[in-house]
C-alpha cells in the first residue's frame, strides 16, 4: 500500500490563506532537507506535489523536487538552474514558493531559506556558539511546545539560543523534532529536581510554563508553589549567569480560581472586564498569586536577576499533554461527531455562544515571553497577552464544523461536553485504529471539563495597552490561528 504523502496530509483539503500555505509548504521542505532526504543514494528519488491539493492560489499544476540535491544550495551556482523537473535542476525554497504561489511569495520564502542556509552553515562550522541558554519548564505543554519551536530559530531575539526542555513524561514523538536537550524530571520531587537541574549551570533564561491541577484552590497553591520553589531554589544558586525568569500565569488572576469564577457567579466579586494589569488582587486563594509571591521572593536573592509575568486568556495551541487544551479537545469532539454521523452541538451557554470572546495564540505567547526576556524596557513587569481581536463562538463553531466536514447544530441550552462524551472511549479507539492515528486514550486528549467551563459564561476580555506601551506590537488573527492549530493537530495524527 502506498504511503500517504505527509505534505498532502499537512495541507489538508480545505483552502487556506496564502501566508498559511507558504508556511506549511516551505517549513515542510526545509524539514525534508534537515532530515537528510537529499542524502539518499538514488538520484531518482522524487518528492511529487500535486498542486491541485493546495488550492486555487497555486499557479501551476504539478511540481517535482529531485531529492538527491534539492534544497542543498543554489541551482548550479545561480538562481536559474535547469528546467523545472529536468536534470540538474536544484530548486531553492524561494523557487518552490514562487512556482506555487507567484512572485509575492518570494520574500517570505527567502526568509525561510536564509534560516536554513544559516543553520547548515552553523552545522558545517562545528559546535554552535550560543549567546543565550534557555530552560523551559513544561516543554510538552501548550506554550512550552511553542517556545521549543521558536527559541532555536536563527532570527529569534537574544539568540543563538541553546535550549533545555524539562517535562515529567518521556519525550513524545510530536515534540521530537525540536532541536532541544530534553530533560525528564518531575519537579514536584525536590530531591530529583536538585539532582537533575543543578548541573545546568549555563542557563541564562528560565521560562516557567507548567502547572498541576488539584480539586480545591488551597491545594493548588500548595502543589504549584512547591514546584516553582523547587526549580528556583535549585537554579538560582547553581546558574551564575541566570539573567531573567518568565512566569506564565493567566487570566484567572482577574477572575479567580475555577471553583469560584464560574460556579459561584452571583456571590463572587470578580473584576469587571476588560482587565488591565494594575487591578488589585481578589481576596480569595489563587495559586497564581502564590507563584508571583515566590518568584519575587526568590529573585531578590540574586542581584541583577529580573523577571516578567505573562497572563494569557484561553490559549489556542498544540499539545496533547496540556491540561487546558481547548483546540485539541474540540478537534477530538468534532472527530467523534463525524465518526458517528451526528451534528456538532455547542456545549455551552447563550452568553458564550452570542458574546464576544478573545484568545491567546501559543506562538504569540512564546514571542511575548522572548521579547520580555531580552528587552530591558519589559523587565520586572506583569503583562496581559492576547491576540488583539475578538470573535464569537457561534461563528467559530461553523469554522470547526467545516474543518471536519460535520454539520453544525443550532444552539441548544444546557448541553455539557462531559455528559455527551461519557462512554465514548470505545468510539475513540475505533477512530484511532481506523485512521492510523497516534495511539492515545480519550481521557488524554479530551479535557471535557475545561471546555464546559470556558463555555459556561460570557467571554472575559483583557487589554493589551501595557504591552504596546512597552514596545510589544505582536498580534494574531484569531480565525487564522484557530484554523492553523486545527491543521497542526491533524498533521501530527492526533485526529483524522
Automatic annotation (TrEMBL):
Matching InterPro entries: NAD(P)-bd_dom_sf, PRISE-like_Rossmann-fold
GO BP, sorted A to Z: isoprenoid metabolic process
Annotated GO MF terms: oxidoreductase activity, acting on the CH-CH group of donors
Keywords: NADP, Oxidoreductase
Pfam families: PRISE
Domain of life: Eukaryota
Residues covered by the PRISE-like Rossmann-fold domain: 197-496
Protein's UniProt name: PRISE-like Rossmann-fold domain-containing protein
Native organism: Rhododendron williamsianum
